[in-house]
Amino acid sequence: TQLLEQSPQFLSIQEGENLTVYCNSSSVFSSLQWYRQEPGEGPVLLVTVVTGGEVKKLKRLTFQFGDARKDSSLHITAAQPGDTGLYLCAVDYGNNRLAFGKGNQVVVIP
Amino acid sequence: GAGVSQSPRYKVAKRGQDVALRCDPISGHVSLFWYQQALGQGPEFLTYFQNEAQLDKSGLPSDRFFAERPEGSVSTLKIQRTQQEDSAVYLCASSFRVLTNEKLFFGSGTQLSVL
User: Tens of pLDDT along B56-109?
Assistant: First the structure.
């Protein structure tokens, strides 16, 4: 059983469109991390959310942690080709050991 | 170094061969982690070190997998008698401290293909 379920698994959109991807679980977490991974590279940390209902913005990316701290979403406004990548959510279950979801593969077409 | 360095970037092995994957963490980083990422999946935890001590190896899939970090810096992940199901990207990561949500820095990985 996957601890973190990410949906949709794959999303292809035109440049300039908006998109939202989701990370869901039946478990409650004290915090949740989002990473972006580009082909041939390792994941790079984008943000950590720690408070239920928290919203964090990183340029055109908006991250939200659910009120119950069981889920999170990532919204991209006016997507650019540089936003293409695999978006991974992860939880730290102690001493930086991470459990990842399977990822949301986002492709932005110029 | 500027980042986590892994070598080789690509490794092709015949089934049954032994392989060794190297990780050079960021200088001064205490913690070092190995993850396995199968095609189309998120990374899965294999093992981690705090300095030279291997504190958790619960994610290693079998006793064919062995990791070491003898001097608390460079680490090697060894896979004996490779099988096709070992084909994956092996990612190494390091962090400065041992704290929950301490930022992890990942290397680019070694892509292992077992034929």
Answer: 999 999 999 999 999 999 999 999 999 999 999 999 999 998 777 788 999 999
A13 DSSP β-pair partners? A108
User: Alpha-carbon distance B113 to B86, whole Å?
Assistant: 8
B69 contact partners, CB below 8 Å, separation of at least 6: B32, B49, B51, B52, B54, B75, B76
Amino acid present at B59: G
**Cβ proximity of B46 and B30 under 8 Å:** no
The alpha carbon of residue A75 is apart from the nearest alpha carbon of chain B, in Å, by: 20
Any chain B CB within 8 A of the CB of A77?
no
DSSP string computed for B87-114: -EEEEEEEESS--TTPPPEE---EEEEE
> Which residues, in sequence order, are bridge partners of residue B44?
B36
Within 8 A of B104 by CB-CB distance, chain A residues are: 45, 96, 98
What pLDDT digit, counting tens, does each position of A50-104 carry? Answer: 999 999 999 999 999 999 999 999 999 999 999 999 999 999 888 888 999 999 9
Reported as half-sphere exposure (CB side, CA atoms, 13 A), residue A66 has a value of 14
Q: Do A92 and B4 touch (CB under 8 A)?
A: no
- Evaluated on CA atoms A39, A8, A66, A4, the torsion sign reads negative
Cβ of A46 under 8 Å from any chain B Cβ? no
By Cβ distance, the residue of B33, B95, B101 closest to A48 is B101
Which of A44, A97, A100 shows the shortest C-beta gap to B42?
A100
